Amino acid sequence: MATNGNHSRRGSSGGALGIKIALVACVLLVMAAASSPLFSRLSGPSAESDPPAQDTPPASSVDNLVPSSTAPESAPPESAPPESAAPESAQPSTPLVPRPAEDTAAGVGLGIAVPESAAVADSYFDDAVFVGNSRTEALKMYSGIPASQFYCNVGLAVDTAFTQRIVNLGGQYLTVAEALQQGSYSKVYIMLGLNELGWVYESVFAEDYGKLIDAVQQSHPDATIYVQSIIPVSHWKETSDSKGGVYTNANVIRLQKALVELCEEKGVNYVNVAEVMQDTDGCLFSEATGDGVHLTAEYCEVWMDYLRTHTVQ
Question: By the 8 A CB rule, do 165 and 173 touch?
Answer without folding.
Answer: yes
